[in-house]
Write a structure and sequence with these properties.
Number of helices: 9
Structural class: alpha/beta
Largest sheet: 5 strands, parallel
InterPro entries: P-loop_NTPase, Thymidylate_kin-like_dom, Thymidylate_kin_CS, Thymidylate_kinase
Pfam family, one: Thymidylate_kin
GO molecular function: dTMP kinase activity
Shape: globular
Radius of gyration: 18 Å
Oligomer: single chain
Keywords: ATP-binding, Kinase, Nucleotide biosynthesis, Nucleotide-binding, Transferase
Catalytic activity: dTMP + ATP = dTDP + ADP
Distance between the termini: 28 Å
Helix content: 40-55%
Number of strands: 7
């Protein structure tokens, strides 16, 4: 690998999309080729899996013989935790094979909105599965590919969800206890890998958050004081 792999993590509503775009623009201004992607949904297969994960599955839309009225009124069925873990892993395996590794081999910077750590936080932390099983499954799916840097944008979930400007999806509507466990899981992951993670208080102004990211990326890439 000759490129640079960066991920952004955090509960929904912390501002990952904004900071991903800031970083993309900055690195391109420095002459780097940048690929921005996301999980779930970074490939055509991933988009189909993303719909299953975020919208859920109804008995009628799983049945090709269901009529339109039944489909529209059907409640989503629950996805079993192990099935959910396998769907995330399948999405990640395809994402790495089709999108991330080829870009890294072209010496590009890959920035992903969510990666392996989201599975650990949302599934092992939020849904109380074994962290070791989730991590082993994801590392197997990606052939042990991890980001060089992970920016964890941290915020109280009650505050971050107040920022959401769309209807809550299946993950976002899972409840306060789930969201708080997920946040705690993210922080535990960062504490366990301080060389990879940078934890940033996302309750700060957008410009303050961006400055912290830029200073760190300058250090990581050796741009020096001239860029500041």
């Amino acid at each position: 690998m000759v490129g640079l792999f960066i991920s952004f993590e955090g509960v929904d509503g912390v501002g990952k999309t904004t900071q991903v775009e800031r970083l993309r623009q900055y690195l391109e201004s420095r002459g780097r080729t940048v690929l921005v992607t996301r999980e779930p949904g970074g490939t055509p297969l991933g988009l189909a899996l993303r719909r299953l994960l975020l919208e859920g599955v109804t008995e009628s839309n799983a049945n090709s013989d269901g009529d339109a009225n039944t489909t529209a009124n059907a409640a989503p069925t629950d996805i079993a935790p192990r099935a959910e873990a396998l769907i995330f892993a399948a999405d990640r395996a395809q994402h790495v094979a089709e999108t991330i590794r080829p870009a890294l081999q072209r010496d590009e910077v890959v920035i992903t909105d969510r990666y392996l750590d989201s599975s650990l936080a949302y599934q092992a932390g939020g849904r109380e599965l074994t962290a070791r099983e989730i991590r082993d499954l994801s590392l197997w799916a990606t052939n042990n590919l991890l980001p060089v840097r992970t920016y964890l944008l941290d915020m109280d979930p009650a505050e971050s969800h107040a920022r959401l400007q769309h209807d809550e999806d299946r993950m976002e509507s899972a409840g306060d206890d789930f969201q708080n466990r997920t946040r705690r899981a993210f922080l535990d992951l960062a504490e366990a890998e301080p060389e990879r993670f940078r934890v940033i208080d996302a309750a700060q102004p957008i410009e303050t958050v961006w400055t912290k990211i830029r200073v760190d990326i300058d250090d990581l890439l050796g741009y020096g004081e001239d860029s500041r």
